[in-house]
Amino acid sequence: MAQEYDFDLFTIGAGSGGVRASRVSASHGARVAIAEEHRVGGTCVIRGCVPKKMLVYGAQFAEDLEDAQAFGWTMDKPEFSWIKLRDNVLAEVDRLNEAYKTTLDSHGVTLFNERAEITGPHEITLASGKIVTAGKILIATGATPHVPDIPGCELGITSNEVFHLDNLPKRVLIAGGGYIANEFAGIFNEFDAKVTIVNRSDQLLRGYDQTLRDRLLQISMTKGIDFRFHAEPTGIEKLDDGNMRVSMKNHDPLDVDLVLFATGRVPHTRGLGLQKAGVELGDKCEIKVDRFSKTSVDHIYAVGDCTDRVQLTPVAIREGQAFADSVFGGKQTSVNYDYIPSAVFSHPPLASVGMTEGEAKNKLGTVKVYLSDFRPMKNVMAGRNERSLYKMICDGDEGRIVGLHMIGPESPEIMQAAAIAVKAGLTKNDFDATVALHPTMSEELVLMK
Ligand code: NDP
């Protein structure tokens, strides 16, 4: 008997959420196709988390090589090649891109390497003109960098281009004070560039605990990163010597050779035929969905950054998995958004789970706050005057941990394990009852006063 549609599922966007949803739907027996206009893997793999983390590793060697001398190592002046690091990172991205394609292929998912648009209730038209039909449509198109509309904004770059630079800049202006700004400030600073963060407010990393943000600001300034607050860029002009002059509110203009916009990411929902299809969008053009990722149209779903719920890769993956299990696996599943750990891979990194102190006080009234402010053993020996800070926020007499925040070496690695305990509802007493693992930085978690 002829099938009603060409596919059971058509996914638009082969990033973290779209690939997971498509592969799992196929393993549940669905006939699946996926369209991707760029490279399979999406922001995280191609121009986000993965290449960024490799640059963070590369940058950390600058400090490690310096510190090594205190541990008895002598070496001739180490040399750094940006081109070598860049090409190795891009080669790893190529490898992962192939691995993602192989995964789709091995699950029998049909890949269309072209743009797709919804053109009828169950109809999708591809850039080549090919028309396909599908029972269900999943939008997983992610988000794109937001660039302020100022004169000369085209002279700046975003995180999309930053992995492909031909030369390391000597003076970088980073607009924004969020994740990407602080991560790339750390990277470029370790590579000896003069970095200036230019932010429209006086708040870095909005949403993170104030104590961590203050500590990152203090360490970053000590490392030589400059900050200009209440300083929204108003224009960029190209100078005769090839440099750029950036004018900004409340501050003098600054001459630099690279401008990086890290001013947030907006849902990538334009030109997909969504409005015509009747899919409701929110104020930021995000796709509105219910807790099962269903849009206002019964057979159209959306997962990941295009829904602007929590802009994090592991969340998109969970949403994709839950969609596939609910729609094709016969098991109605929704994502639990409580206690999602997150990290900023700055130098040093910071990591958090649960409520900040301010949020906890607003929501719960009286809370108990425990702090550990310490200098890691390795920093002491290396003569590096850089302190780590852990903060635990506990609720009520029982002392249930409702927030845990850390800044210091390896804090994202430590947080992933600690977040399990926080998510499980453990208390300060449970942590204290665990014998310290000595000597580590993470033992501070069970020794907090
Ligand atoms: P963020 O949302 O983290 O930060 C945006 C920054 O830009 C804020 O400081 C904001 O200021 C400022 N800003 C926003 N709009 C303007 C404007 N028009 N002019 C000037 N400044 C502006 O965005 P990012 O671009 O750094 O990252 C995007 C998202 O990607 C993050 O939210 C995160 O979800 C994800 N991401 C996650 C990473 C991780 O998990 N480690 C790493 C990188 C990205 P204000 O605070 O005043 O609004």
TrEMBL record:
Keyword Membrane: no
Pfam families: Pyr_redox_2, Pyr_redox_dim
UniProt entry tagged with the keyword Disulfide bond: yes
Domain FAD/NAD(P)-binding residues, every copy: 8-320
Details of cofactor binding: Binds 1 FAD per subunit.
Recorded GO MF terms: flavin adenine dinucleotide binding; glutathione-disulfide reductase (NADPH) activity
InterPro entries in alphabetical order: FAD/NAD-bd_sf, FAD/NAD-binding_dom, FAD/NAD-linked_Rdtase_dimer_sf, GSHR/TRXR-like, Pyr_nuc-diS_OxRdtase, Pyr_nucl-diS_OxRdtase_dimer, Pyr_OxRdtase_I_AS
Chain positions recorded as NAD(+) binding sites: G176, G177, G178, Y179, I180, A181, N182, E183, G264, D305
Disulfide bonds: C44-C49
Active site: H438
Domain Pyridine nucleotide-disulphide oxidoreductase dimerisation residues, every copy: 340-447
Broad enzyme group: oxidoreductase
Domain of life, source organism: Bacteria
Family: Belongs to the class-I pyridine nucleotide-disulfide oxidoreductase family.
NCBIfam families registered for this protein in UniProt: PRK06116.1
Name of the protein in its database record: Glutathione-disulfide reductase
